[in-house]
Write a structure and sequence with these properties.
Blueprint lengths: L2 H13 L15 H10 L7 E8 L6 H4 L21 H11 L4 E8 L8 E9 L5 E7 L7 E7 L2 E6 L2 E7 L3 H7 L9 E5 L8 H14 L13 H17 L3 E2 L4 H13 L22
Helix pairs in contact: 2-4, 4-7
Length: 289
């Protein structure tokens, strides 16, 4: 999947406005992310200043990549860990924080596996309000980490190991810095754990919402409109493209430039892949939170 294809798909949908066009962004209905979104919009969090998401618990073996000729190839998937494993987390990143204005990707191709696409990435992002962020992922690291940290002027939220903790400043940190008479003082903060319910059939909720929007579009707004899939696809593309050309890129990216680059990678690919017969494994092991 790449942005130019997404643009063409969206154009077709817009040409047929009576057709319902939705995406499967099931993490948008998970209780933990609904609470995060609510907190980020509140005065308790303040203005976003930093985002860190380390999600390196996607460990995959050579057998996984050898289970299909399309896997982890420029022609088959058009990318690796960003496009395959991290697409829903990238959707969450832009759904919670908005799209960054500038990104710089550092992606290693075949760092841990005999593949031609990225399996280890570290990326840097900047938002229009001055907030900065990093997004790190890998399919070659074990045991791996899944930690989301969001810092605002009124506090810091950390989500890790199915727990959500919030440290709330009694005063805005920027205002405190400007008004404090002490060089080493810092705002008092209180800590709390924010409970949330486990996700229950999020895919089913999205499917039911899609059906409801077809049956009664005036009463059922889509939770995940198809056009909003552009955000995660663009991030997956631009972070990889930035790494390949060795430059920071401002968003929105030039979709045609990435399409040309991807076609060039496909045309010049000399990677030979040994494909073995796949085994019947529990597919739920591929999911992440």
């Amino acid at each position: 999947a790449h942005k130019a294809d997404a643009e063409r798909l969206i154009a077709v949908a817009q040409a047929h406005p009576k057709q319902v066009f939705a995406g499967m962004f099931q993490m948008r209905v998970e209780p933990r992310y609904l609470k995060i979104k609510q907190l980020l919009a509140s005065a308790d969090f303040g203005q976003l200043v930093r985002v860190n998401w380390i999600i390196t618990d996607w460990f995959r073996t050579e057998a996984y990549y050898a289970s299909g000729g399309w896997r982890a190839t420029w022609k088959g998937e058009g990318g690796g860990v960003l496009l395959n494993q991290c697409l829903h987390q990238l959707d969450m990143l832009q759904w919670l924080c908005g799209m960054p204005k500038t990104v710089r990707g550092f992606c290693q191709l075949g760092r841990y596996h005999n593949i031609e696409v990225e399996d280890n990435i570290s990326t840097y992002m900047e938002w229009a309000n001055g907030a900065t962020g990093v997004f790190i992922s890998s399919t070659g690291e074990a045991p791996g980490t899944n930690r989301l940290e969001l810092c605002g002027t009124r506090g810091k939220l950390v989500v890790e190991n199915d727990k959500m903790r919030f440290a709330r400043n009694e005063s805005d940190m920027i205002e405190f810095s400007r008004t404090s008479k002490s060089g080493f003082a810092k705002p008092e903060a209180w800590n709390c754990e924010i409970p949330f319910e486990p996700a229950t059939n999020p895919h089913g909720i999205l499917i039911q919402n899609f059906v409801d929007a077809i049956l009664d579009p005036d009463k059922s707004a889509l939770i995940a409109p198809g056009a909003e899939g552009m955000g995660s696809v663009e991030l997956a593309n631009v972070l990889l493209y930035s790494s390949l050309i060795g430059q920071s890129i401002e968003l929105p990216m030039d979709s045609k430039a990435w399409e040309r680059k991807l076609n060039e990678l496909i045309a010049h690919s000399r990677h030979e892949k040994k494909v073995v017969q796949s085994t019947a494994e529990d597919f739920t092991k591929s999911f992440n939170k």
